Amino acid sequence: MAEFTIETYDRNAVVDITRQVNAHIPATVRSGVCHVFCPHTTAGLTVNENADPNVKIDIMAKLAAMIPHEESYYRHNEGNSDAHLKATLVGMSLTLPVREGRLALGTWQGVYFCEFDGPRTRHVQVCWQDADY
């Protein structure tokens, strides 16, 4: 297993981490699966389009409209209930195929870390299973 750190600079952000995940897959893993996990309750992971930056903006705008930050809605009194709900919807782990030592993503796909309660220092864990093992 490997781990890397992400620094976020805004309360809400979508950060492309495809390169970091690929960098942590050993070259010896020719085919198999890669598990990516976010050990935080107010952040998540997703796979989505990485060609048009407006997709990230649209995702965050729709989540904000569906789950507003306004504190009067929530019983949790830390001021970040919306972040917990957004992270639950997005999810905290991914299982992705590996081919020729890299993530086998679609042409337009990227792996994204979604920050909902920043700015913060975050961690992402990566582990893999070689299909030839």
Automatic annotation (TrEMBL):
This is Secondary thiamine-phosphate synthase enzyme. It comes from the Bacteria. NCBIfam families: TIGR00149_YjbQ. Belongs to the UPF0047 family. PROSITE patterns: UPF0047.
